[in-house]
Specification:
8 helices; elongated; Rossmann fold; five-stranded parallel beta sheet; 12 strands; 20% strand; alpha/beta
């Protein structure tokens, strides 16, 4: 097989990665244009963790450590035969593993599934990056310790500099002192509620994205959030997949995906 790099524009640059963080080049074979956009966001998330998965680039890497193949592509069997002859770990996305024992996940592409698929294919355990690699500051505002701990456990894997507030007044104080890329904000808080906090933060930090965390999902509540200036809602209990989608959207790191044909 020959390698052909298709140009893609990166909408952001990956955070700096320390030399001791393992980097695993992944050759992406097949997939639609829209799926490659989604994979670009997934690789962007991966750039914030260890091990770090990156698209394979012939001029930068000796060889892929992993081949990610579209198992529903009619050319999949030919790809599998050629790659097996070369050697290398293989992971599949699609309806069938084509009679192989390679790890596989079904469509649609989901952040958590794909990152776990990468880890499983190479038998690696995910871990946090060192503090020196943290480049984006995030604020989590919730009076529930359980929610704050959940958010801490998920955000810690992606190298964010995270502050936590348990009240609206504390959140406003944090936002006045620091510039945040994104704020995850509970609606129901002691004292000042989330809508009031959102208005105040947006007034002074208009470029800060605000994602409301709420168990209130009625159209009226969403209208109130929109009027307050929030950018998105996450319904509690927070789903990890939706959380990663929000991170990819509001703290974006996109990387180009070269095509292997």
């Amino acid at each position: 097989m020959s390698s052909v790099q298709i140009a893609a524009q990166a909408e952001g640059s990956a955070p700096p990665i320390q030399d001791d963080v393992r980097t695993c080049p992944v050759a992406v074979i097949g997939f639609s244009a829209s799926e490659r956009v989604a994979l670009g966001s997934i690789f962007g998330l991966s750039a914030r963790r260890s091990p770090r998965f990156v698209p394979f680039l012939p001029n930068e890497h000796k060889a892929p450590e992993l081949y990610l193949i579209d198992a529903d592509d009619e050319r999949c069997d030919a790809y599998l035969k050629a790659i097996t002859a070369k050697g290398g770990a293989i992971a599949l996305v699609g309806a069938s593993a084509r009679g192989t024992s390679h790890p596989i996940v079904p469509r649609p592409l989901m952040w958590t599934r794909i990152l776990k698929l990468f880890d499983d294919a190479l038998r690696l355990a995910p871990g946090p990056l060192a503090a020196a690699t943290k480049t984006d500051r995030v604020l989590v505002v919730d009076d529930s310790l359980a929610v704050r701990k959940f958010m801490e456990s998920r955000l810690s894997l992606y190298g964010f500099d995270v502050d936590y507030a348990a009240s609206g007044e504390e959140a406003v104080s944090f936002a006045a002192a620091k510039k945040y890329t994104c704020v995850f904000l509970d609606v129901i808080l002691p004292g000042m509620d989330g809508y009031q906090v959102c208005k105040l933060v947006k007034k002074s930090r208009s470029r800060t994205s605000i994602v409301m965390l709420t168990s209130k999902s009625s159209p009226f509540d969403r209208i109130r959030g929109t009027m307050a200036g929030c950018d998105a809602y996450l319904t509690k209990p927070v789903d990890e997949e939706k959380l990663l989608e929000a991170i990819a959207k509001f703290v974006p790191v996109h990387v180009p995906i070269p095509m292997i044909v």
